[in-house]
């Protein structure tokens, strides 16, 4: 029998593709080197989201001190040099020598992954948002420099690090009357393309934390413009709900309850509005679990069961009416679910979903018991909630009939697609894109100018319905919205299925004028309310057509703002240049529209992101909701910012 030459050790030829692959090619990354090599594993990405995740990790450590009763004040400062610091008045990171590492406890925490005071029963915290022990060490690894200061037992300690490595010993600066910890760091430009802090993003997170930790004082200072923000909410998440609903008509006072079962603390605040949307924000140990988890599942189950039980017990559901669904019961609901537990099981370092199986039953039991008691003690409020859900159920049934018109029976049934849709020939969603275009005229031009292999065109006639003011049955009666839903193929609301999406990119292309901006806002409202996962998954884009076309001789130039126009004219000279101001997409011919707005090689499109659910919900409510006064105040507040804008 011939021996397989690939298995011999003497003169054997290596398997193709395996040349030079041996023990020497196996890399061992020590210390924080792995973090710098693969930062996305620890902070999600190196874009602006990842940059601000560094801040979240640092302030979460201070929050853990406050959550366990050791800190009452937290200060965040954006310094003029671009660094950021977080200071608390907690216990201070220990500085004595660690028995296993031989280094100070501070240096151990800052330089060793999976080192911290949050592991098991012997840790320094009953509950915490951190559980992997990698947060602050990751921040250290991804910072050009970091200075850790500890105020402990009357002594001020300090140590400096550069790219994760200590460059000074732990030193005693002098005596102090303070206590706590200050972490100041400069994000590393070798890791992050953009290291500029967005104060609005930071303030939103701090305000959120102030609601979740009632009574704790927060201070944010931006030294770049000397603006300050102060937060302290003694009402806690009750104040949070009232803050979110301040631009809504509400049905009843805020319902609030809290209960501790064993080592787990459950707190809920909820209030119904006259609106149609649902805004339920779940938190676990101060971390917003944007993808939900077992605690949210328990809350939803208990809410649905409690409302149904009360309705049946009091004969509020008439004969022939079906049981209220979760969707019915949550229409118009604003709620905050805040739990604190030991040993949370988050999915991934970015902690977007809670997985503790025992938490579902615990939360469901607490919420069901507390709501049942509230309904018995407040029958008027309970009846309003039930009536709201019953109205939603009747509308749901009407919507079900309307929704049938938007469904495609199979992927091959082309006749089910809207007649106005000019579909593409490729069928791989990852390679295809849908342009939703304002107006039949511009839609016709786009159809002529597109690459029909991967670009589909859906023209819209006029302005679509404002879904912020309409229930789902009325929304589905709108022909333009029905056509969009059918074209995309995913369904909406609880029936949404991202796997059925027919286009990897949805691009909104409207005129660069006031009407175009209005139509774009109406479309964004629709996607945010009924297909938010498309926004979260980064599928939604806004096309940016040019404002000006400049022709000189046979050359054509485009400018997207007045500033760009001046730059172009300065480069090519004004003499002999013909300037055309595009008031609408229809003023461009097919070739120009392709070159400026549709050609992937030359176009400019802007991805729509969902940075903060509460802020997004608020702005859509203010601009598109029923109340006029908040919209007037918003316009008056921001009028000066746009009074010189040429639109």
Write the layout of secondary structure elements.
Blueprint: H1 33-37, H2 40-43, H3 48-67, E1 73-78, E2 84-88, H4 105-111, H5 135-141, E3 143-152, E4 155-162, E5 165-166, E6 171-175, E7 180-187, H6 199-212, E8 217-222, E9 227-231, H7 237-244, E10 255-261, E11 264-272, E12 279-284, E13 287-288, H8 294-313, H9 326-329, E14 333-340, H10 357-377, H11 379-403, E15 433-438, H12 440-449, E16 455-460, H13 472-476, H14 479-488, E17 505-509, H15 514-530, H16 532-536, E18 540-543, E19 548-552, E20 555-559, H17 562-572, E21 578-581, H18 590-598, E22 605-607, H19 613-624, H20 628-642
Parallel strand pairs: 1-8, 12-14, 15-16, 15-17, 17-18
Antiparallel strand pairs: 1-2, 2-7, 3-4, 3-7, 4-5, 4-6, 8-9, 10-11, 11-14, 12-13, 18-22, 19-20, 19-21
Task: Kindly summarize this structure in a few lines.
With 647 residues, the protein is α+β, with helices and mostly antiparallel strands. It is built from 20 helices and 22 strands. Helix 8 (294-313) crosses helix 11 (379-403).
Task: Outline the structure in words.
The protein has 647 residues and is α+β, with helices and mostly antiparallel strands. It has three domains: 33-231, Histidine kinase-like ATPase, C-terminal domain (Heat Shock Protein 90), CATH 3.30.565; 237-403, Ribosomal Protein S5, domain 2 (2-Layer Sandwich), CATH 3.30.230; 409-545, 3-Layer(aba) Sandwich (Rossmann fold), CATH 3.40.50.670. The chain is 35% helix and 19% strand. It is built from 20 helices and 22 strands. Strands 1, 2, 3, 4, 5, 6, 7, 8 and 9 form a nine-stranded mixed beta sheet that branches. A five-stranded mixed beta sheet has the order 10-11-14-12-13, with helices on both faces. Strand 3 (143-152) and strand 4 form a beta hairpin. Helix 3 runs parallel beside helix 6 (199-212). The model is unreliable at 1-17, 117-133, 408-415 and 642-647 (pLDDT under 50).
């Amino acid at each position: 029998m011939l021996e397989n030459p690939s298995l011999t050790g003497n003169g054997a030829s290596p398997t193709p593709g395996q040349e030079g692959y041996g023990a020497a090619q196996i890399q061992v990354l020590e210390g924080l080197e792995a973090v710098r090599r693969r930062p996305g594993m620890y902070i999600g990405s190196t874009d602006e989201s990842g940059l601000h995740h560094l801040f979240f990790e640092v302030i979460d450590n201070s929050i853990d001190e406050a959550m366990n009763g050791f800190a009452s004040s937290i200060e965040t400062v954006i310094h003029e040099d671009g660094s950021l610091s977080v200071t608390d008045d907690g216990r201070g990171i220990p500085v004595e020598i660690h028995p296993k590492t031989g280094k100070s406890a501070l240096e151990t925490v800052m330089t060793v992954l999976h080192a911290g005071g949050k592991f098991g029963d012997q840790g320094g915290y009953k509950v915490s948002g951190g559980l992997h022990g990698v947060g602050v060490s990751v921040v250290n690894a991804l910072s050009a420099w970091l200075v850790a200061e500890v105020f402990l037992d009357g002594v001020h300690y300090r140590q400096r690090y550069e790219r994760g490595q200590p460059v000074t010993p732990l030193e005693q600066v002098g005596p102090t009357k303070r206590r706590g910890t200050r972490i100041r760091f400069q994000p590393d430009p070798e890791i992050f393309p953009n290291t500029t802090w967005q104060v609005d993003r930071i303030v939103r997170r701090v305000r959120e934390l102030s609601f979740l930790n009632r009574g704790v004082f927060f201070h944010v200072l931006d030294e770049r413009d000397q603006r300050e923000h102060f937060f302290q909410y003694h009402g806690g998440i009750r104040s949070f709900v009232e803050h979110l609903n301040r631009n809504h008509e509400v049905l009843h006072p805020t319902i609030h309850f809290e209960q501790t079962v064993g080592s787990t603390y459950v707190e809920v605040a909820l209030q119904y509005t006259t609106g149609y949307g649902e805004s339920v924000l779940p938190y676990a140990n101060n971390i917003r679990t944007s993808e939900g988890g077992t605690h949210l599942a328990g809350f939803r189950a208990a809410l649905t069961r409690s409302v149904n039980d009360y309705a049946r017990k009091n004969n509020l559901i008439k004969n022939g009416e079906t049981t209220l669904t979760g969707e019915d019961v949550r229409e118009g609901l604003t709620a905050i679910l805040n739990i604190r537990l030991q040993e949370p099981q988050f999915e991934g370092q970015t902690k977007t979903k809670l997985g503790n199986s025992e938490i579902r039953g615990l939360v469901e039991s607490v919420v069901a018991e507390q709501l049942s008691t509230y309904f018995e003690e407040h029958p008027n409020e309970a009846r309003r909630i039930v009536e709201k859900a019953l109205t939603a159920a009747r509308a749901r049934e009407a919507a079900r009939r309307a929704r049938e018109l938007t469904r495609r029976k199979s992927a091959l049934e082309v006749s089910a697609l809207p007649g106005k849709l000019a579909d593409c020939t490729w069928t791989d969603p990852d390679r295809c894109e849908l342009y939703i275009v304002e107006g039949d005229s511009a839609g016709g031009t786009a159809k002529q100018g597109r690459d029909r292999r991967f670009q589909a065109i859906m023209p819209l006639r006029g302005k679509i319905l404002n879904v912020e003011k309409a229930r789902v049955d009325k929304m589905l009666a709108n022909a333009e919205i029905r056509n969009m839903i059918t074209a995309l193929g995913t369904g909406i609301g609880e029936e949404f299925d991202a796997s059925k999406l027919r286009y990897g990119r949805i691009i909104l292309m409207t005129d660069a004028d006031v009407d175009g901006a209005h139509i774009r806002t109406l479309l964004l409202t629709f996607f945010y309310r009924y297909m938010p996962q498309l926004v979260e998954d980064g599928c939604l884009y806004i096309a940016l057509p040019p404002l000006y076309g400049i022709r000189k001789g046979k050359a054509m130039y485009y400018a997207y703002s007045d500033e760009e126009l001046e730059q172009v004219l300065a480069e090519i000279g004004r003499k002999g240049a013909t300037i055309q101001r595009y008031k609408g997409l229809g003023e461009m011919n097919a070739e120009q529209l392709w070159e400026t707005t549709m050609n992937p090689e030359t176009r400019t499109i802007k991805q729509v992101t969902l940075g903060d659910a509460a802020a997004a919900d608020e702005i859509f409510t203010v601009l598109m909701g029923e109340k006029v006064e908040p919209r007037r105040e918003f316009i008056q507040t921001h009028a000066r910012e746009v009074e010189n804008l040429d639109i």
